[in-house]
Protein backbone atom coordinates (compact mmCIF):
# COMPACT_ATOMS: atom_id res chain seq x y z
CA UNK A 1 0.00 0.00 0.00
CA UNK A 2 1.46 3.33 -1.03
CA UNK A 3 1.58 5.93 1.69
CA UNK A 4 3.59 8.71 3.23
CA UNK A 5 3.75 8.74 6.98
CA UNK A 6 5.67 11.45 8.77
CA UNK A 7 5.85 11.58 12.51
CA UNK A 8 7.34 14.65 14.17
CA UNK A 9 9.98 15.07 11.48
CA UNK A 10 12.73 17.64 11.96
CA UNK A 11 15.20 18.65 9.29
CA UNK A 12 18.28 20.80 9.77
CA UNK A 13 20.54 22.16 7.11
CA UNK A 14 23.95 21.44 8.58
CA UNK A 15 25.77 24.70 9.21
CA UNK A 16 29.10 23.13 8.20
CA UNK A 17 27.85 23.22 4.63
CA UNK A 18 27.97 26.99 4.52
CA UNK A 19 30.35 27.77 7.40
CA UNK A 20 33.98 26.69 7.41
CA UNK A 21 34.64 24.39 4.55
CA UNK A 22 38.35 24.50 3.90
CA UNK A 23 41.15 22.63 5.58
CA UNK A 24 42.72 25.99 6.29
CA UNK A 25 39.94 27.23 8.53
CA UNK A 26 39.63 23.86 10.21
CA UNK A 27 43.36 23.68 10.93
CA UNK A 28 43.41 27.32 12.02
CA UNK A 29 40.78 26.42 14.59
CA UNK A 30 42.88 23.52 15.83
CA UNK A 31 46.13 25.45 15.94
CA UNK A 32 44.79 28.50 17.73
CA UNK A 33 43.00 26.20 20.13
CA UNK A 34 39.72 27.91 19.46
CA UNK A 35 36.77 25.68 19.01
CA UNK A 36 34.83 26.97 16.06
CA UNK A 37 32.37 29.01 18.03
CA UNK A 38 28.90 27.65 17.97
CA UNK A 39 26.08 30.09 17.72
CA UNK A 40 27.43 32.46 15.10
CA UNK A 41 25.90 30.56 12.25
CA UNK A 42 23.26 28.13 13.35
CA UNK A 43 22.03 25.00 11.72
CA UNK A 44 19.00 26.05 9.75
CA UNK A 45 15.94 24.39 11.21
CA UNK A 46 14.12 24.01 7.89
CA UNK A 47 11.33 21.66 8.95
CA UNK A 48 9.96 21.65 12.48
CA UNK A 49 7.95 18.82 13.95
CA UNK A 50 6.17 17.81 10.77
CA UNK A 51 3.52 15.14 11.27
CA UNK A 52 1.44 14.17 8.24
CA UNK A 53 -0.28 11.05 7.00
CA UNK A 54 -0.94 10.85 3.27
CA UNK A 55 -2.83 7.82 2.04
CA UNK A 56 -3.15 6.31 -1.42
CA UNK A 57 -5.42 8.32 -3.71
CA UNK A 58 -4.79 11.68 -2.07
CA UNK A 59 -3.89 14.80 -4.04
CA UNK A 60 -2.07 17.18 -1.76
CA UNK A 61 -1.08 20.78 -2.51
CA UNK A 62 1.65 22.58 -0.59
CA UNK A 63 1.19 26.29 0.04
CA UNK A 64 3.54 28.79 1.57
CA UNK A 65 5.70 31.66 0.46
CA UNK A 66 9.32 31.28 -0.65
CA UNK A 67 11.46 29.74 2.04
CA UNK A 68 8.52 28.37 4.00
CA UNK A 69 9.73 24.80 3.55
CA UNK A 70 7.73 23.44 0.61
CA UNK A 71 10.68 22.35 -1.51
CA UNK A 72 12.57 21.04 1.48
CA UNK A 73 9.50 19.04 2.41
CA UNK A 74 9.34 17.50 -1.06
CA UNK A 75 13.03 16.67 -1.10
CA UNK A 76 12.77 15.19 2.35
CA UNK A 77 9.90 12.95 1.24
CA UNK A 78 11.95 11.97 -1.81
CA UNK A 79 14.72 10.87 0.55
CA UNK A 80 17.27 13.35 -0.75
CA UNK A 81 17.73 15.19 2.51
CA UNK A 82 18.34 13.25 5.71
CA UNK A 83 15.98 14.04 8.57
CA UNK A 84 17.46 14.94 11.93
CA UNK A 85 14.63 13.74 14.10
CA UNK A 86 11.32 11.91 14.01
CA UNK A 87 10.24 9.15 11.69
CA UNK A 88 9.69 9.03 7.97
CA UNK A 89 7.99 6.19 6.18
CA UNK A 90 7.45 6.42 2.44
CA UNK A 91 6.10 3.38 0.62
CA UNK A 92 5.88 3.27 -3.14
CA UNK A 93 7.98 4.12 -6.13
CA UNK A 94 8.85 7.80 -5.93
CA UNK A 95 8.87 10.01 -9.00
CA UNK A 96 10.02 13.53 -8.41
CA UNK A 97 10.18 16.48 -10.78
CA UNK A 98 12.53 19.09 -9.32
CA UNK A 99 15.10 21.32 -11.08
CA UNK A 100 14.35 19.87 -14.48
CA UNK A 101 17.23 21.14 -16.55
CA UNK A 102 19.89 19.83 -14.15
CA UNK A 103 21.98 16.89 -15.16
CA UNK A 104 22.30 17.00 -18.92
CA UNK A 105 25.55 15.98 -20.57
CA UNK A 106 26.23 19.05 -22.73
CA UNK A 107 28.34 17.23 -25.30
CA UNK A 108 25.89 14.40 -25.86
CA UNK A 109 22.99 14.70 -28.26
CA UNK A 110 19.40 15.18 -27.19
CA UNK A 111 18.65 11.57 -28.01
CA UNK A 112 21.54 10.30 -25.87
CA UNK A 113 20.43 12.53 -23.03
CA UNK A 114 16.95 11.04 -23.13
CA UNK A 115 18.59 7.72 -22.42
CA UNK A 116 20.81 9.09 -19.62
CA UNK A 117 17.93 10.85 -17.92
CA UNK A 118 15.80 7.74 -18.10
CA UNK A 119 18.58 5.64 -16.62
CA UNK A 120 19.05 8.20 -13.86
CA UNK A 121 15.37 7.76 -13.05
CA UNK A 122 15.94 4.03 -12.74
CA UNK A 123 14.65 2.80 -16.10
CA UNK A 124 16.27 0.01 -18.09
CA UNK A 125 17.86 0.75 -21.50
CA UNK A 126 15.27 -1.51 -23.10
CA UNK A 127 12.36 0.41 -21.65
CA UNK A 128 13.97 3.69 -22.69
CA UNK A 129 14.28 2.55 -26.30
CA UNK A 130 10.58 1.76 -26.25
CA UNK A 131 9.53 5.21 -25.09
CA UNK A 132 12.20 7.18 -26.95
CA UNK A 133 10.08 7.94 -30.00
CA UNK A 134 7.23 9.14 -27.87
CA UNK A 135 9.54 11.43 -25.89
CA UNK A 136 11.09 12.83 -29.07
CA UNK A 137 7.66 13.52 -30.49
CA UNK A 138 6.50 15.27 -27.34
CA UNK A 139 9.62 17.43 -26.98
CA UNK A 140 9.11 18.40 -30.63
CA UNK A 141 12.60 19.76 -31.20
CA UNK A 142 12.82 18.82 -34.87
CA UNK A 143 16.26 17.89 -36.15
CA UNK A 144 17.86 19.41 -33.02
CA UNK A 145 17.19 16.14 -31.20
CA UNK A 146 20.38 14.79 -32.80
CA UNK A 147 22.44 17.88 -31.94
CA UNK A 148 24.48 18.24 -28.74
CA UNK A 149 22.58 19.69 -25.81
CA UNK A 150 24.98 22.62 -25.62
CA UNK A 151 23.50 24.00 -28.83
CA UNK A 152 20.05 24.16 -27.20
CA UNK A 153 18.39 27.26 -25.85
CA UNK A 154 17.26 27.21 -22.22
CA UNK A 155 13.66 26.73 -23.31
CA UNK A 156 14.54 23.76 -25.50
CA UNK A 157 16.44 22.11 -22.63
CA UNK A 158 13.42 22.45 -20.38
CA UNK A 159 11.16 20.95 -23.03
CA UNK A 160 13.39 17.94 -23.42
CA UNK A 161 13.84 17.50 -19.68
CA UNK A 162 10.11 17.78 -19.18
CA UNK A 163 9.37 15.28 -21.92
CA UNK A 164 11.67 12.64 -20.45
CA UNK A 165 10.86 13.20 -16.81
CA UNK A 166 7.12 12.95 -17.37
CA UNK A 167 7.40 9.84 -19.52
CA UNK A 168 8.30 7.74 -16.50
CA UNK A 169 5.48 6.84 -14.16
CA UNK A 170 5.57 6.33 -10.42
CA UNK A 171 3.33 5.64 -7.43
CA UNK A 172 4.25 8.72 -5.45
CA UNK A 173 4.54 11.83 -7.62
CA UNK A 174 6.32 14.86 -6.18
CA UNK A 175 6.07 18.07 -8.21
CA UNK A 176 7.76 21.37 -7.50
CA UNK A 177 6.48 24.24 -9.68
CA UNK A 178 7.27 22.53 -12.94
CA UNK A 179 4.36 23.82 -14.97
CA UNK A 180 5.06 27.01 -16.89
CA UNK A 181 8.09 26.29 -19.05
CA UNK A 182 8.34 26.89 -22.77
CA UNK A 183 6.11 28.82 -25.11
CA UNK A 184 2.34 29.10 -24.87
CA UNK A 185 1.61 26.07 -27.03
CA UNK A 186 4.00 23.93 -25.04
CA UNK A 187 2.50 25.01 -21.72
CA UNK A 188 -0.91 23.71 -22.79
CA UNK A 189 0.65 20.42 -23.90
CA UNK A 190 2.66 20.23 -20.69
CA UNK A 191 -0.35 20.79 -18.49
CA UNK A 192 -2.29 18.06 -20.23
CA UNK A 193 0.61 15.71 -19.77
CA UNK A 194 1.01 16.55 -16.10
CA UNK A 195 -2.67 15.82 -15.61
CA UNK A 196 -2.30 12.45 -17.30
CA UNK A 197 0.69 11.67 -15.09
CA UNK A 198 -1.23 12.73 -12.01
CA UNK A 199 -4.12 10.48 -12.90
CA UNK A 200 -1.80 7.50 -13.15
CA UNK A 201 -0.11 8.16 -9.83
CA UNK A 202 -1.38 6.91 -6.49
CA UNK A 203 -0.25 9.89 -4.46
CA UNK A 204 0.46 13.42 -5.62
CA UNK A 205 2.22 16.13 -3.66
CA UNK A 206 2.38 19.41 -5.55
CA UNK A 207 4.04 22.64 -4.47
CA UNK A 208 2.65 25.66 -6.30
CA UNK A 209 1.76 29.31 -6.03
CA UNK A 210 -0.92 28.98 -8.65
CA UNK A 211 -4.20 28.80 -6.74
CA UNK A 212 -6.21 27.93 -9.83
CA UNK A 213 -4.24 24.78 -10.60
CA UNK A 214 -4.12 23.84 -6.93
CA UNK A 215 -7.91 24.09 -6.74
CA UNK A 216 -8.44 22.05 -9.87
CA UNK A 217 -5.90 19.32 -9.10
CA UNK A 218 -5.73 18.93 -5.33
CA UNK A 219 -8.29 18.03 -2.72
CA UNK A 220 -6.13 18.61 0.34
CA UNK A 221 -3.82 21.45 1.25
CA UNK A 222 -0.90 21.86 3.66
CA UNK A 223 0.05 25.41 4.55
CA UNK A 224 3.71 25.93 5.46
CA UNK A 225 4.99 28.85 7.45
CA UNK A 226 8.58 29.11 8.65
CA UNK A 227 9.15 25.39 8.45
CA UNK A 228 5.98 24.35 10.21
CA UNK A 229 2.67 23.08 8.95
CA UNK A 230 0.20 25.64 10.24
CA UNK A 231 -2.85 24.24 8.48
CA UNK A 232 -3.94 20.89 7.13
CA UNK A 233 -7.33 20.58 5.50
CA UNK A 234 -9.40 21.04 2.37
CA UNK A 235 -7.76 22.89 -0.46
CA UNK A 236 -10.16 25.86 -0.43
CA UNK A 237 -9.73 26.35 3.31
CA UNK A 238 -5.97 26.01 2.90
CA UNK A 239 -5.83 28.80 0.35
CA UNK A 240 -7.86 31.04 2.65
CA UNK A 241 -5.57 30.15 5.55
CA UNK A 242 -2.47 30.77 3.46
CA UNK A 243 -3.73 34.24 2.58
CA UNK A 244 -4.52 34.96 6.22
CA UNK A 245 -1.10 33.81 7.47
CA UNK A 246 0.72 35.94 4.92
CA UNK A 247 -1.54 38.94 5.32
CA UNK A 248 -2.97 38.77 1.83
CA UNK A 249 -6.64 38.54 2.68
CA UNK B 1 24.93 -6.18 8.17
CA UNK B 2 22.65 -3.39 9.30
CA UNK B 3 24.36 -0.39 10.77
CA UNK B 4 23.66 -1.13 14.36
CA UNK B 5 24.02 1.88 16.57
CA UNK B 6 23.36 5.56 16.21
CA UNK B 7 25.01 7.93 18.58
CA UNK B 8 22.51 10.22 20.19
CA UNK B 9 24.51 13.39 19.72
CA UNK B 10 24.78 13.00 15.99
CA UNK B 11 21.55 14.51 14.81
CA UNK B 12 22.10 13.65 11.22
CA UNK B 13 21.44 9.99 11.42
CA UNK B 14 17.93 8.96 10.95
CA UNK B 15 16.68 5.67 12.25
CA UNK B 16 16.72 3.23 9.37
CA UNK B 17 12.96 3.17 9.06
CA UNK B 18 12.53 3.82 5.38
CA UNK B 19 10.99 0.81 3.80
CA UNK B 20 12.17 -0.89 0.63
CA UNK B 21 11.96 -1.14 -2.36
CA UNK B 22 13.48 2.31 -2.70
CA UNK B 23 17.27 2.29 -2.49
CA UNK B 24 17.11 4.67 0.41
CA UNK B 25 18.12 2.32 3.19
CA UNK B 26 21.70 2.62 4.26
CA UNK B 27 22.12 -0.84 5.70
CA UNK B 28 24.87 -2.71 3.90
CA UNK B 29 22.89 -5.22 1.89
CA UNK B 30 20.33 -2.74 0.66
CA UNK B 31 23.11 -0.36 -0.21
CA UNK B 32 24.71 -2.94 -2.46
CA UNK B 33 21.31 -3.79 -3.89
CA UNK B 34 20.86 -0.12 -4.73
CA UNK B 35 24.18 -0.08 -6.56
CA UNK B 36 23.10 -3.10 -8.56
CA UNK B 37 19.69 -1.60 -9.31
CA UNK B 38 21.37 1.51 -10.74
CA UNK B 39 23.84 -0.49 -12.86
CA UNK B 40 22.52 0.77 -16.18
CA UNK B 41 22.97 4.31 -14.99
CA UNK B 42 26.58 4.13 -13.84
CA UNK B 43 27.67 2.00 -16.73
CA UNK B 44 26.29 4.54 -19.15
CA UNK B 45 27.87 7.41 -17.24
CA UNK B 46 31.18 5.65 -17.51
CA UNK B 47 30.86 5.02 -21.23
CA UNK B 48 29.75 8.58 -21.80
CA UNK B 49 32.84 9.77 -19.89
CA UNK B 50 34.97 7.77 -22.29
CA UNK B 51 33.13 9.03 -25.33
CA UNK B 52 33.39 12.65 -24.29
CA UNK B 53 37.07 12.28 -23.46
CA UNK B 54 37.97 11.43 -27.05
CA UNK B 55 35.17 13.22 -28.83
CA UNK B 56 36.58 14.87 -31.96
CA UNK B 57 40.10 13.50 -31.44
CA UNK B 58 41.76 11.71 -34.34
CA UNK B 59 43.42 8.85 -32.48
CA UNK B 60 40.58 8.57 -29.97
CA UNK B 61 41.00 5.72 -27.54
CA UNK B 62 44.42 4.88 -29.02
CA UNK B 63 45.77 7.78 -26.99
CA UNK B 64 45.57 5.47 -23.96
CA UNK B 65 48.21 3.35 -25.70
CA UNK B 66 50.27 6.04 -27.41
CA UNK B 67 50.72 8.24 -24.37
CA UNK B 68 52.30 5.78 -21.89
CA UNK B 69 54.26 4.16 -24.69
CA UNK B 70 55.81 7.43 -25.79
CA UNK B 71 56.67 8.46 -22.26
CA UNK B 72 58.13 5.03 -21.54
CA UNK B 73 60.45 5.21 -24.53
CA UNK B 74 61.71 8.58 -23.38
CA UNK B 75 62.12 7.62 -19.72
CA UNK B 76 63.71 4.25 -20.34
CA UNK B 77 66.22 5.87 -22.65
CA UNK B 78 67.22 8.44 -20.02
CA UNK B 79 67.04 6.16 -16.97
CA UNK B 80 68.70 3.35 -18.91
CA UNK B 81 71.69 5.59 -19.50
CA UNK B 82 71.78 6.76 -15.87
CA UNK B 83 71.46 3.34 -14.28
CA UNK B 84 73.20 1.42 -17.08
CA UNK B 85 70.17 -0.81 -17.53
CA UNK B 86 69.32 -2.57 -20.75
CA UNK B 87 66.53 -0.56 -22.37
CA UNK B 88 64.57 -3.63 -23.50
CA UNK B 89 64.53 -4.88 -19.91
CA UNK B 90 63.89 -1.58 -18.32
CA UNK B 91 61.18 -0.24 -20.62
CA UNK B 92 58.52 -2.87 -19.79
CA UNK B 93 59.32 -2.33 -16.11
CA UNK B 94 58.60 1.39 -16.43
CA UNK B 95 55.59 0.80 -18.64
CA UNK B 96 53.97 -1.58 -16.15
CA UNK B 97 54.58 0.87 -13.34
CA UNK B 98 53.29 3.80 -15.35
CA UNK B 99 50.06 2.16 -16.50
CA UNK B 100 49.16 0.95 -13.05
CA UNK B 101 50.14 4.13 -11.29
CA UNK B 102 48.20 6.23 -13.78
CA UNK B 103 45.15 4.18 -12.87
CA UNK B 104 45.69 4.83 -9.17
CA UNK B 105 46.22 8.57 -9.70
CA UNK B 106 43.21 8.95 -11.96
CA UNK B 107 41.02 7.04 -9.52
CA UNK B 108 42.22 8.98 -6.49
CA UNK B 109 42.00 12.44 -8.05
CA UNK B 110 38.86 11.62 -10.02
CA UNK B 111 37.37 10.08 -6.89
CA UNK B 112 37.96 13.18 -4.83
CA UNK B 113 35.88 15.15 -7.34
CA UNK B 114 33.36 12.50 -8.22
CA UNK B 115 30.50 13.62 -5.97
CA UNK B 116 31.11 17.28 -6.73
CA UNK B 117 30.82 16.60 -10.45
CA UNK B 118 27.73 14.46 -10.02
CA UNK B 119 25.92 17.12 -7.98
CA UNK B 120 23.13 17.51 -10.54
CA UNK B 121 22.32 13.80 -10.23
CA UNK B 122 22.75 13.64 -6.47
CA UNK B 123 20.34 16.54 -5.97
CA UNK B 124 17.67 14.92 -8.09
CA UNK B 125 17.70 11.24 -7.42
CA UNK B 126 18.48 9.06 -4.48
CA UNK B 127 21.09 6.53 -5.50
CA UNK B 128 23.87 5.09 -3.35
CA UNK B 129 26.74 7.56 -3.68
CA UNK B 130 29.21 4.76 -4.32
CA UNK B 131 27.83 4.45 -7.86
CA UNK B 132 29.52 7.73 -8.73
CA UNK B 133 32.92 6.61 -7.48
CA UNK B 134 32.35 3.30 -9.24
CA UNK B 135 31.74 5.23 -12.45
CA UNK B 136 35.11 6.95 -12.04
CA UNK B 137 36.87 3.67 -11.32
CA UNK B 138 35.20 1.88 -14.21
CA UNK B 139 36.18 4.64 -16.65
CA UNK B 140 39.78 4.44 -15.47
CA UNK B 141 39.74 0.66 -15.58
CA UNK B 142 38.81 0.66 -19.25
CA UNK B 143 41.67 3.08 -19.95
CA UNK B 144 43.96 0.80 -17.93
CA UNK B 145 42.92 -2.27 -19.90
CA UNK B 146 43.51 -0.54 -23.23
CA UNK B 147 46.90 0.68 -22.09
CA UNK B 148 47.84 -2.81 -20.88
CA UNK B 149 47.67 -4.24 -24.36
CA UNK B 150 50.82 -2.33 -25.24
CA UNK B 151 52.62 -3.92 -22.30
CA UNK B 152 51.48 -7.42 -23.26
CA UNK B 153 52.53 -6.97 -26.86
CA UNK B 154 55.88 -5.54 -25.83
CA UNK B 155 56.67 -8.43 -23.51
CA UNK B 156 55.49 -11.06 -26.01
CA UNK B 157 57.82 -9.66 -28.65
CA UNK B 158 60.88 -9.00 -26.52
CA UNK B 159 60.60 -11.67 -23.85
CA UNK B 160 58.55 -14.49 -25.37
CA UNK B 161 60.35 -16.94 -23.06
CA UNK B 162 58.47 -15.38 -20.13
CA UNK B 163 55.17 -16.66 -21.48
CA UNK B 164 53.81 -19.50 -19.41
CA UNK B 165 51.28 -20.69 -16.85
CA UNK B 166 52.26 -17.92 -14.49
CA UNK B 167 50.53 -15.49 -16.83
CA UNK B 168 47.25 -16.81 -15.44
CA UNK B 169 47.99 -14.62 -12.43
CA UNK B 170 47.98 -11.45 -14.52
CA UNK B 171 44.19 -11.01 -14.86
CA UNK B 172 43.79 -11.35 -11.08
CA UNK B 173 45.12 -7.82 -10.82
CA UNK B 174 41.91 -6.45 -12.33
CA UNK B 175 39.51 -7.32 -9.48
CA UNK B 176 42.22 -6.32 -7.01
CA UNK B 177 42.56 -2.92 -8.66
CA UNK B 178 38.81 -2.35 -8.60
CA UNK B 179 38.58 -3.38 -4.95
CA UNK B 180 41.39 -0.98 -4.09
CA UNK B 181 40.34 1.96 -6.24
CA UNK B 182 36.60 1.86 -5.52
CA UNK B 183 36.75 2.29 -1.74
CA UNK B 184 39.64 4.71 -2.19
CA UNK B 185 37.68 6.87 -4.64
CA UNK B 186 34.57 6.72 -2.45
CA UNK B 187 36.50 7.69 0.66
CA UNK B 188 38.20 10.57 -1.11
CA UNK B 189 34.85 11.57 -2.61
CA UNK B 190 33.30 11.95 0.85
CA UNK B 191 36.25 14.02 2.02
CA UNK B 192 36.52 15.97 -1.23
CA UNK B 193 32.89 17.06 -1.08
CA UNK B 194 33.56 18.70 2.27
CA UNK B 195 37.14 19.88 1.75
CA UNK B 196 37.69 21.20 -1.73
CA UNK B 197 41.44 21.42 -1.05
CA UNK B 198 41.68 17.67 -1.41
CA UNK B 199 42.50 17.33 -5.13
CA UNK B 200 45.40 19.74 -4.71
CA UNK B 201 46.68 18.00 -1.60
CA UNK B 202 46.39 14.67 -3.36
CA UNK B 203 48.76 15.78 -6.08
CA UNK B 204 51.39 16.26 -3.42
CA UNK B 205 50.68 13.02 -1.55
CA UNK B 206 50.65 10.91 -4.69
CA UNK B 207 53.90 12.44 -5.87
CA UNK B 208 55.45 11.56 -2.50
CA UNK B 209 54.13 7.99 -2.71
CA UNK B 210 55.53 7.69 -6.20
CA UNK B 211 58.95 8.74 -4.95
CA UNK B 212 59.14 6.18 -2.15
CA UNK B 213 57.76 3.28 -4.18
CA UNK B 214 59.41 1.09 -6.79
CA UNK B 215 57.18 2.35 -9.60
CA UNK B 216 59.74 3.67 -12.09
CA UNK B 217 62.81 2.89 -10.02
CA UNK B 218 63.73 -0.76 -9.72
CA UNK B 219 63.56 -2.41 -6.28
CA UNK B 220 67.32 -3.01 -6.40
CA UNK B 221 67.85 0.76 -6.33
CA UNK B 222 65.96 0.97 -3.02
CA UNK B 223 67.64 -2.15 -1.63
CA UNK B 224 71.03 -0.77 -2.65
CA UNK B 225 70.30 2.28 -0.52
CA UNK B 226 69.35 0.12 2.46
CA UNK B 227 65.68 1.00 2.09
CA UNK B 228 64.32 -2.55 2.16
CA UNK B 229 61.20 -1.50 3.99
CA UNK B 230 60.07 0.72 1.12
CA UNK B 231 59.95 -2.41 -1.01
CA UNK B 232 59.00 -5.27 1.31
CA UNK B 233 56.36 -3.44 3.34
CA UNK B 234 54.99 -1.40 0.46
CA UNK B 235 51.58 -2.55 -0.83
CA UNK B 236 52.23 -0.71 -4.08
CA UNK B 237 55.27 -2.90 -4.71
CA UNK B 238 53.33 -6.06 -3.95
CA UNK B 239 50.45 -5.02 -6.17
CA UNK B 240 52.84 -4.31 -9.03
CA UNK B 241 54.56 -7.67 -8.51
CA UNK B 242 51.31 -9.45 -9.35
CA UNK B 243 51.77 -8.15 -12.89
CA UNK B 244 55.52 -7.88 -12.99
CA UNK B 245 56.47 -11.30 -11.68
CA UNK B 246 54.72 -13.21 -14.47
CA UNK B 247 55.27 -10.73 -17.30
CA UNK B 248 58.81 -9.61 -16.63
CA UNK B 249 60.30 -12.62 -14.84
CA UNK B 250 58.05 -15.46 -15.95
CA UNK B 251 57.34 -16.36 -12.31
CA UNK B 252 54.23 -16.69 -10.18
CA UNK B 253 53.49 -13.83 -7.79
CA UNK B 254 54.06 -14.80 -4.15
CA UNK B 255 51.39 -15.19 -1.48
CA UNK B 256 52.89 -12.16 0.19
CA UNK B 257 52.04 -10.10 -2.90
CA UNK B 258 48.41 -11.13 -2.56
CA UNK B 259 48.46 -10.80 1.20
CA UNK B 260 49.57 -7.18 1.12
CA UNK B 261 47.06 -6.37 -1.62
CA UNK B 262 44.19 -7.87 0.35
CA UNK B 263 45.37 -6.06 3.44
CA UNK B 264 45.21 -2.79 1.55
CA UNK B 265 41.74 -3.63 0.27
CA UNK B 266 40.47 -4.48 3.75
CA UNK B 267 41.91 -1.29 5.18
CA UNK B 268 40.42 0.92 2.49
CA UNK B 269 36.99 -0.70 2.66
CA UNK B 270 36.96 -0.33 6.43
CA UNK B 271 37.88 3.34 6.18
CA UNK B 272 35.33 4.04 3.45
CA UNK B 273 32.54 2.34 5.41
CA UNK B 274 33.46 4.12 8.64
CA UNK B 275 33.54 7.53 6.98
CA UNK B 276 30.54 6.75 4.80
CA UNK B 277 28.32 5.87 7.74
CA UNK B 278 28.14 9.48 8.76
CA UNK B 279 29.17 11.20 5.52
CA UNK B 280 26.90 9.46 3.00
CA UNK B 281 23.86 11.51 3.94
CA UNK B 282 25.62 14.78 4.55
CA UNK B 283 27.28 14.98 1.14
CA UNK B 284 24.21 16.58 -0.45
CA UNK B 285 24.57 19.57 1.90
CA UNK B 286 28.11 20.24 0.73
CA UNK B 287 27.35 20.30 -2.99
Task: State the main characteristics.
heterodimer, A: 249 residues, alpha/beta, Rossmann fold, three-stranded antiparallel β-sheet, globular, B: mainly alpha, 70% helix
Q: Give the ordered list of helices and strands of chain A.
A: EHEEHEEHHHEHEHEEH
Q: Which pair of protein chains has the largest interface, and what are the residue counts?
A: A-B, 43 and 37 residues
Distance between the termini of chain B: 29 Å
**Unreliable spans of chain B:** 1-25
Tell me about the biggest sheet of chain B? none
The percent range for helix content of chain A is 25-40%
Helical fraction of chain B equals over 70%
Number of helices of chain A: 8
Percent of residues of chain B in beta strands?
A: under 5%
Domain count of chain A: 2
CATH fold field value of the largest domain in chain A: Rossmann fold
Given helix and strand content, the structural type of chain A is alpha/beta
Spans of chain A with pLDDT under 50 lasting ≥5 residues? Answer: none
How far apart lie the N and C ends of chain A?
A: 39 Å
**Nearest-integer average pLDDT of chain B:** 85
State the CATH architecture of the largest domain in chain A. 3-Layer(aba) Sandwich
Q: How many DSSP E strands of chain B?
A: 0
Question: Could you walk me through the main structural features you see in this protein, from its secondary elements to its overall organization?
Answer:
The complex is a heterodimer of chains A (249) and B (287). Chain A is an alpha/beta fold and 249 residues long. Chain A has eight helices and nine strands. In chain A, strand 8 and strand 9 (228-234) form a beta hairpin. The longest helix of chain A has 17 residues, at 184-200. The two termini of chain A are 39 Å apart. The mean pLDDT of chain A is 82. Chain B is globular and about 55 Å long. The two termini of chain B are 29 Å apart. Chain B has one domain.
Amino acid sequence: MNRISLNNVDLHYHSAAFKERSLKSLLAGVVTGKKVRQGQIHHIHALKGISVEIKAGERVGLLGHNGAGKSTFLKMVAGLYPISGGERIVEGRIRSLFDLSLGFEPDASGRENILYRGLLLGMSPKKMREIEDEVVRFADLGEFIDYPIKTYSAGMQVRLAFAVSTAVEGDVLLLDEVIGAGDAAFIVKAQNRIRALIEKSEILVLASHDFASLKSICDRGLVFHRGEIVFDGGVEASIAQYKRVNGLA
Amino acid sequence: MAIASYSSEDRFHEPAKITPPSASDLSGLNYIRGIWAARHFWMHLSLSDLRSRWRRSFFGIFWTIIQPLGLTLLLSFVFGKIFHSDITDYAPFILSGMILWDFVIASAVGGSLTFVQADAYIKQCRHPLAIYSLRTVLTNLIVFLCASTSLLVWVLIWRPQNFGWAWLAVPTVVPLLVLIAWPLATLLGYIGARFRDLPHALGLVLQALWFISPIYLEPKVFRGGGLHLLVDANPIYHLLQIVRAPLLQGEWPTWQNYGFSFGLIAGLILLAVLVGRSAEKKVIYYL
